[in-house]
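Subject: sequence -> C-alpha cells, single chain

Hey, anyone have a minute? Need the predicted structure for the following. Not urgent.
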Amino acid sequence: MSKPPRSSSAAPRVIEIVAFARVQLLDVSGPLQVFSTANDIVVESGGAPPYALRVVAQAGGNVIASAGLGLAADRLPPLDAALDTLIIAGGDGVQAAAADPALVNWIRRRAKSARRVASVCTGAFLLAATGLLDGRRAATHWSLCVELARKFPAVKVEPDPIFVRDGPIWTSAGVTAGIDLALALVEKDLGRTIALAVARYLVVFLKRPGGQAQFSTALSLQAAEDKFGALHDWINAHLADEISLAVMARQAGMSQRSFSRHYTEATGLTPGRAIERLRVEAARQMLLQSRLPIKRICQRCGFGSEETMRRSFLRLIGATPQDYRSRFSA
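Reply:
Had a minute. Here:
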C-alpha cells in the first residue's frame, strides 16, 4: 500500500466501502454515517468536506443487504483511481464474496492504491482471503474468531479488541464496532475535537470502554458448548474455589495435556484465560445487579485479591471495577 501525503482540504480523501450480495447493512451504513457526519461538521464550520464517500460493488447497481434493503452502489473503480481508504464490509454473504477470485484479486490490487485498508466485522474473512492479513493482528466478530484463526492460520486473531490496527490495516469486531473504527479513522485524520463532535452527534462513545469480552464471555464460549458446556456450567458454580488446570482436566475427564489442547482448539482461549473471563463476567453482573461491596464480589468470584480483580478488569474491560459500576449500573 502506498503512503501518499495527507489530503488537503481541496482534495477530499476518497473512501470506498466494498459491498456485496447479503452484506450486513450496518457494516456499510455505520462507517458511512460517521464519515458523512464528519463532512457535515467540517462544512458547518466553514471548511470543505474532508471525505468523498462511495459504496462500490462488483456489478454496481442495487445491492441487496441481508436485511432486505437495497443499496445503490457504483461499479468497482479502476485499480489506479484516486483512493485514500478501502473498507471491506462483512455480512452473511461474505463467504461467497471471499470465494470469488475476481473480487478477491481486485481488493488485493486496489489496496496498493490506498493509504490504509480496513474491514468491518466478518469483512475480515474477505480481507484475509487476499493475503493482506497474513502475519498481522486482526479482529472480527467474537463468535467467529476461532473460525477465522482456523481458516487463515497466518492471521493473528485477537478476540478481545473492538478494533485492531496493525500498520496500515485496521480490522473491527462485530457490526457496530465499525462505527468505533470509523471514529478512530476520523480522529486520526481530523483530530480529536471533530471526532468527538461526530460521536456526540451520533450519541456514541468516541472510545467505547472495554472490548468484546465486556459483552458476554459466556456467549463467546458457546462455540465449545458441545464439548465443554457442562464444564463451563460447573466452573460458573465454583468460581469462588481454586480452579487449576488439573481440576478442570479431571472435571472434563481428560489428561491435562489433552484437555489443554482440545480446549484451546475449541474456544481459542487457554483454560486459564477462560477462567479469568468467566470470573470477570460474573463480577461484572454482580457490579451491575447488586450493591455488594467490591471486596465481597472479589471473594465470590475467586479472584484472590482486589488487586488481581482490578488488573483483570483493566485488561479485559478497560476500566476498574469501581469505574465500571459507576459508569454502567442503574
